[in-house]
Amino acid sequence: MLSRTLEGKIAVITGGSRGTFPWPFPAMNPSLISPKGIGSAIARNLASRGCSLVLNYSSPKSSEQCISLAKELEEKHAIRCIGVQADMGSISGPADLIQTAKAQLLPGSPFRIDIIINNAGVVNNTKIEDTDPEDFDWMYRTNVRGPLLLVKAAIPYLPQDRSGRIVNVSSISSTEGFEELSIYGGTKAALEAMTRTWSRELAERCTVNAVNPGPVMTDMWTSMPLSHRAGLKPWVSHTPLAAVRPGLDNADLVADADTVGGRPAYSHEVAGIVSMLCSEESSLCTGQVICANGGMRMAI
C-alpha cells in the first residue's frame, strides 16, 4: 500500500474522469492496460496517497463515468471525492467549479485548495491553410483562458504557507514544432509561460510547475490513424524510454513499434511525475517544465 503522504489535502483536477485502470499500477504487466486518460490516472494516484478530490468534467456524457470513478475512489481509499460538471472553455465555468466544490465537498467546514491540476485540454490538428478562427478561439479558451480563470478563482482558498501545488499539463508540442499543431502547440507554450509567471506571483502560496508529455497511450492516441502516428517516428525512435519491451509492453504497441518508432507513455507514468510535483519533497521546485516524455526532449 502506498504511503498516504497527501492525507487531508484537497485537489482539483480538470478533465479528471476519463479512463480506468487499477492503482497501484501492476508494473510488471503493462500488457493488461487499455487506453485511458491522463486525468483519471492522476486522480487514482493522488487518491491512493490520501488526497480528497474534485473531479471536473465538461460534457454531460461524462457524468456517469465521473460519478462512478468518484464513488470507487471514495470506497477504496477512504477519501472524499466529488464530480463537478463545468466547462473550462467558458468564462463562468472555472469559478463555478470552485464554488460548487466549496459547497459540496466539505459543507460547513473551512475550505482550502491544496492542489490544482490543470489537465483539461482540447486539440484539432490542422494545416495552416485549413486553420479555422473558430478552432483558434476554442482551443485558447479551454487550454489557456480556462487554467488562468481557474487559478484566479482559487486564489482565496490557496494555502498561505507555500505548501500549495499547481501542476499544469502542457505538451511537448509547445517546443518541437510538430506539423498541424500551430494552434495547439501555441496554447501549450502559453500555458508554460503562465506557469513561470504564476510561480513568481504565487510564491508565498504554492509552487507552480508544468509537465510536458509526448505521445501517451490514451483514446486520442489509439484513435489516431497509424499513418499519423508514423509521422512521429523521427522523434519517438530517438526517445530513450520509448523502446518497446516485448513481453512487458502492450502487445499492440509492440506490433506498431517498427512503424511508430517505439511506444507512447502510459498515463500512469505521467501521473507519477505529476504526483511527485505535488509532494512535500518538491517544495524547492517551481516555475519549471518537467520532463514527462521519456527523454523525447532534453533541456537544461
Automatic annotation (TrEMBL):
Any one Gene Ontology molecular-function term assigned to this protein's record: oxidoreductase activity, acting on the CH-OH group of donors, NAD or NADP as acceptor
Family: Belongs to the short-chain dehydrogenases/reductases (SDR) family.
Any one Pfam family match given in the protein's UniProt record, by short name: adh_short
SUPFAM superfamilies cross-referenced by the UniProt entry: NAD(P)-binding Rossmann-fold domains
Keyword Ribonucleoprotein: no
Organism whose genome encodes this protein: Rhynchosporium agropyri
Single biological process term from Gene Ontology: fatty acid biosynthetic process
Keywords assigned: NADP, Oxidoreductase
Protein name: Related to 3-oxoacyl-[acyl-carrier-protein] reductase
Domain of life: Eukaryota
